[in-house]
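Action item from last week, closing it out:
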Amino acid sequence: MYEVYCPQTYRLNKEYPLYIGKRVLDELPKKIAPFKPNKVLLITDSNLSKLYSSKILSLLNQFETHLVEIPAGEENKNFQNYLDLCNKIIDLGATKSTFLVIMGGGMVGNLAGFAASTVMRGLNFAHIPTNIMAQVDSTTGGKQAINLSQGKNLLGVFNDPKFILIDIDFLKTLPKREISCGLAECIKHAICQDENFVDKLYGLLDQGSKYSEEDYLFIIKNTIDLKIKLLRMDPKEINEGKILVYGHTIGHAVETLSKGKLNHGESISIGMVAAARASVMFNIADNSLLEQHIDLLQKAGLPTKIIPEITYENIINQLKYDKKISSTMDLILLEKVGVVHHIEGRIGYPVDKEQLKEIILQCY
């Protein structure tokens, strides 16, 4: 079992453990026991419940444990389902000593993590992420959030779990598209932070999503190590931490406007290509950066162009809701693989509406 620590973003010099490996799920009772819960609530979605809830409930038989199901699908990461979940938690008699086990992908982790962070001003909880995207991105870093009609993750908090269990056995049941989706975030970290990791990915990525257990462990561990490096420098994404949102500015807009046709990883893939095109357009990088983006992402089975039904006008209009954009729109750009562009130490390149239009039009 591989163990790392993630920085807590709201208490100085405190850290929470993250465990990675095969069959680490079996460690769950041992990790919960020190918190001496009066009861445990297992929160998962309706699809995953059919696959795994009986096993988890059996593991937790030393505790009074209740299963709480939420509807599956990103469209359900909304305010109404957040309220419904909060009511279920309270109706089950939760107290400040209740422990929440949140099992699922990014939607479940974000929605239930936000509920856990706000019911009774915060309950103890742990994440068990079940796909690559959740393992390397959405559960690590303390961001819990839900979507509003205007865009993704507009209502949320920074709040950390007590621990995270990453078991690669969950990946055996993932469809090809879900695997590719998660690898988008791994490629993001590699291409922004580590040229050697990029070189390794060239040899590992497979359009058919055929990966060994060793491949998964290598990719996931390296991605998380890179993410933790950023979080330790800048947990609230004020400067260095902005690297975490590389490709997300345009990517989130594309995802929202696709209305379910593109998942998060596919949208961020397109957003990263847009950022690479901007880097070349502003003479910050040469064309080889763009070529490397397209090669890597296509090797992972990811799209690199905006789908035709999403217009550039709609993207620009959607961007006004992006929580990372203020009066000045900044894009995170690269000078080359592993080197983020900065101006006197400040990360973020200001672009105006006409420049943004030109970037977007290059992405079809």
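Closing note: The longest helix spans residues 213-233.
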